[in-house]
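Q: Got a minute? One more chain.
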Amino acid sequence: MAKQPGEIQVQRVTPGVVLTRMRGHATLEHFAPIKSAVDAELEGGGRPAVFHDWEAMTGYDSAVRVAMADWYRGVEDRVAEVHVLASNRMVAMGVAVVALAVGARIQSHASRASFERALGEAKRRA
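A: Always. Here it is, folded:
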């Protein structure tokens, strides 16, 4: 089965809130914009809330999981919260592996309603 090429969108929803949307298969090239957006919030002195809408992500290269874990290990104490919406089982498992590897609390959401509710709360707090 061919991998569906990935597409990433990253936006600063409001100061202190970063939202990523990934569809298709994630490769290392998709990690750089995520890292850049969160690093920019950190450099501004904030503790960003990070939301990953990965409901349409179909999979990822293992190098992405390793890069995310290595980077997040260095910034997790400066990030207020991380939320992930993932419907693909392998993607959800990868999120759990990163959380365990880093020792971080990452809130996984099984439903869009739960994810959107948390995003709305973060925007109100920002």
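A: The helical segments are 28-43, 62-75, 89-102, 112-125.
Q: Perfect, thanks.
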